[in-house]
Specification:
It is globular and about 40 Å long. The chain contains 4 helices and 4 strands; from the N terminus they run αβββααβα. α3 runs parallel beside α4. The chain starts with a helix and ends in a 5-residue tail after the last helix. Helix content is about 40%, strand content about 20%. It has one domain: Nucleotidyltransferase, domain 5, CATH 3.30.420. The protein has about 120 residues and is an alpha+beta fold. The protein has a 4-stranded mixed sheet with strand order 3-2-1-4.
Length: about 120
């Protein structure tokens, strides 16, 4: 039986292989979620730098959200990270769902980022 850490490492390796095939010099919008919060970062792998980040823990969002675990919170995080990325001059990204299914909160974050003006 595999441990949760081993499963996490395997998922991460599968995701990295898929990103290498798709990433053509673009920055990526990376998503991580937990049971209570969702996080998003726009990362430039060529420079090794995070250009923009947002999460349900941000002070900008905390007062507006009922809790950090819902689809509405994920959508708000997507819009906020898109706004911050556009301020840095990023228009187009590759969506890195981190091995999570494109469903629920991950999908809501992606749609919020598209509404915010990011293209992927």
């Amino acid at each position: 039986m595999l441990t949760s850490r081993q499963l996490f490492e395997r998922r991460k390796q599968r995701n990295r292989r898929a990103l290498k095939r798709r990433n053509s010099g673009l920055v990526r919008l990376s998503v991580h979620r937990s049971g209570k919060h969702i996080y998003a970062q726009v990362i430039d792998d060529a420079q090794g730098a995070t250009l923009a980040a947002a999460s349900t823990l941000d002070k900008d969002l905390r007062g507006d959200l009922k809790n950090g675990a819902g689809k509405d919170a994920a959508s708000a995080v997507g819009k906020l990270v898109a706004e911050r990325a556009k301020a840095k001059g990023v228009e187009s990204v590759v969506f890195d769902r981190g091995g999570y299914l494109y469903h629920g909160r991950v999908k809501a974050l992606a749609e919020g980022a598209r509404e915010g003006g990011l293209q992927f």
